Every structure is written in C-alpha cells, then in structure tokens.
Amino acid sequence: MSGLLPSAEGDIHFGPLVTSASDALSVFDQGLSRPATPEVLLIARNGQQQMLMMLVVTDTVEPDHVVEVLQSILQVSTDTAVESVVLASMRPGMPACIDDALIWWTLQDLADGYGIEIADWFVLTEEFFGTGRAFSPRELAGEEAAW
User: Of 2, 25, 58, 139, which one has the greatest count of Cβ atoms within 10 A?
Assistant: First the structure.
C-alpha cells in the first residue's frame, strides 16, 4: 500500500499527517488484518510528518521480526524523503515481552545508521480492536515519547 497517490494531473499527494501516537494508531488500525494475525506495520514519514507510505508484512510470528522488517526496508529504500518511521507489531495472544526493550534499542541503532528516526514502536494484541490500547516498548526502555 502506498501513501503516494498521483492525481489525474500527475501531482503527488502525501498521506495524512502523523504527528501523534493517536494518529499513528488510527492509520495502523486501517491496515491491520482482521481477524488479528502476526504482522508488522511501518509508516514512513517525511520531515513534515506526512505519511509517505504504509507497509504491512505478514507472518511475523517472532517478536524480533520487526527488526528484520526494518532492516530490509532500510537496505532497499532509495526514498531520501523518508526522515522517520513508526512501527507496530501485531502479536495475537502474545503481549509485550521483556526482550522488547532490547529490540527497541536494536531498532534505534539500526535506524540511526541510516539517519532515520524511529518515532515509536507499538506492540498490539487483538484487544487493540476493542480498546485501542497499545504498548510502546520505548517506555520499557526508559525513553521519553518522541511525539
């Protein structure tokens, strides 16, 4: 799914502004599979915090698959307009785990190497659909919100 939508005149329209956790979770809610299945979602944003694209990767059953997804995207990305990303991991039946703090630091180090900021990473379970509740491993790592 791409957030870059050409109009009939050929103009490029960016996706919505994603300036808060609430904005990001709303966009992720639109891309999540139903019923819940293990997947990683990524929103790429430009310097004005506009969504450039959203990517959904399925069959991400291990908690650290989010690292593999980010690494793959960063290695093939040629879009220099991407300045930050927001990630979400849907883990049906598997809430946050103690390794999530380590995974957060791994994501941060990886993104730093490419000059990209990780605005946040959310871990979601199927209860997200009814409550909108999400956990940010950034909190477990003791970091302030980037929003």
Answer: 25
CA distances from 101 to 59, 98, 137 (A): 22, 7, 6
Exposure of 15 in the CB half-sphere (CA atoms within 13 A) = 23
Q: What is the pLDDT of residue 140?
A: 85
DSSP letter assigned to residue 128: H
Q: ∠ CA(112), CA(114), CA(136), 5° rounding?
A: 45
- Give the H/E segment covering residue 139: helix 137-140
DSSP string, 77-119: ---TT--EEEEEEE-TT----TTHHHHHHHHHHHHHTTT-EEE
| Domain positions in the chain | 5-140
d(CA 136, CA 87): 10
45-69 pLDDT, tens per residue? 999 999 999 999 999 999 999 999 9
Q: Is the pTM of this model over 0.85?
A: yes
* CATH code 3.10.530.10 for 5-140: no
